Structure formats: C-alpha cells, structure tokens
C-alpha cells in the first residue's frame, strides 16, 4: 500500500517511498530518490543544485546542540516562524488521524509538532545536516524522511492528503515541474500549504535578494503558476513586515513582524492554502 498503518510503525499514514537506494548517516539509514546525485558537502541543500548531506564534526554538533534552543527562540521572536502558525491553523482544520501528510523542504522539521499525534511525519529534503539527523531522525520514530527533490517525488500517484512547503519554492530550479509533481502525488481535493518569499519586496529592493534564491516571485506570478499546475487558491495572505535592524545585532536573522500590509511590496511573504483540482 502507498500509505497506511505500517506493521513496523505505530503511526498511521506512513508513506512508502518508491526507491531502493539508501545512505547511512550517523548510523541512520535514509532512503534516497533513485535519480538524485548525492554529495557530502557544506553546500548541500544551500546550493539549489547540490543535494546531499552537510557534514558536522562532533565538536560542531555539540556546540549546535547547546546553542539550538537559543537559536530557535531567536527565530521565533525575530524571524518568520509566525508563518508556521498560519499553517498550524490549517492543519488543525483539515488534518486528522487518517491524513497522509508530506512536508517538502522541512528544514529543522519543527512543523511536525502541529500534526495529529497518531500520524507519521513524512518529508522529502534536498539537503540535510548531520546535526539534524542526530537531533531529529535518531530520536523521533514518527519521522519518515527521504532525500530527494520536489521535481521528482518518489511516491506513487494519488497518495497524499496534505502538503506543506515552507519557504522552499524560491530555491527550486524548475518550480513549475515541482508544482505538477505535487498535483501528481496528491489525491483529488488534497490541501497544499505553501509560503514563498516576495522577490520584489522593500527588503529585497534595499538589501538585494538572498543569494540562494533562483526565483523572485510576485504574488501574481506564483498564483498563476499554481493555477496552471492544477491548484485552486482557497486562501491567501500577504504578511511579514521587514524591520531594518542590523542582522549582526540579532543573531544573523532579518527581523520580520506578522503584519499584513496593503501594499504588496511591504510584505516579505505570500502564504497560500491550495486545493488540488483533478479527477
């Protein structure tokens, strides 16, 4: 079965990846998409064209473990973690213990805390650090992660009920192909939650775009791409007021406030709740 209650897992809706490749990382076996070229590089996942694992020395991992709670607190207060709370509202509304959930580009995998406790947290990641393998995969049996790309998701058709993509679409080289892949793996009527950076906001015009972005979206641009791929926009928000505080003073982050401005350029993020339209 593509998804369901696995006899080897106590969690519902654990997705079955359609790959036989694996990689060993920190004693953990991680499935790898058949078509993915994997490297062990500090650029893995940061560079949109380099997939794989970012090595961390034991000392670096130890330091990151100590500093992680402070980093998370800083991001929660100053960064864009407020985007997750919009998604959390939609998860609460639409997810239940029969929902096959998939996150694409999960980063630190913190969104899993909002899921119903009975279901598996399925995720596809392009690049992952050894620190996150130790911190999350080695400790949380609910996590079912594959190394891969949204442009070629190793899943059968019509297997997913809900998807989350937080701040990753601007890093995807062929974003239209990625959107079509989401439609393919999702069931009709599936809910897909996406946040993307506003590539033409005041912050970008002032500081320049993130060097890792390969797309600079406007709202109309991304909406049009989603609709052409087969999505219907159910809800949409523009949010994230940039506060021009020197990043060196706030731990290297840009400061954003969860404020919705009327002018598109005054919002750093677009947030979408989409529904898959197919039969």
Per DSSP E runs of 2 or more residues, the count of β-strands stands at: 14
Which range best describes the helical content: under 10%, 10-25%, 25-40%, 40-55%, 55-70% or over 70%? 25-40%
List the uncertain runs. Answer: none
**Series of H and E elements:** EEEEHHEEEHEEHEHHEEEE
* Terminus-to-terminus distance: 21 Å
Query: How do the strands line up in the largest sheet?
Result: 8-6-5-9-10-14-11
Biggest sheet layout: 7 strands, mixed
Q: What is the SS-derived class?
A: alpha/beta
Name the beta content range: 25-35%
| Rg, Å, rounded | 18 Å
User: Which word captures the global form?
Assistant: globular
Figure out the total of helices.
6
What's the pLDDT, averaged over the residues?
A: 90
Descriptive report:
The relative contact order is 0.16. The protein has helices at 58-78, 82-94, 130-137, 175-185, 202-207, 219-229, and strands at 21-25, 28-32, 38-40, 51-54, 101-104, 121-125, 127-129, 143-147, 160-166, 186-197, 231-239, 241-243, 255-257, 269-276. Strand 9 (160-166), helix 4 (175-185) and strand 10 (186-197) form a beta-alpha-beta unit. The chain contains six helices and 14 strands. The strands form four sheets. It has a seven-stranded mixed beta sheet with strand order 8-6-5-9-10-14-11, with helices on both faces. A three-stranded parallel beta sheet has the order 3-4-7. With 279 residues, it is of the alpha/beta class. 25% of the residues lie in helices and 27% in strands. The protein starts with 20 loop residues before the first strand and ends with a strand.
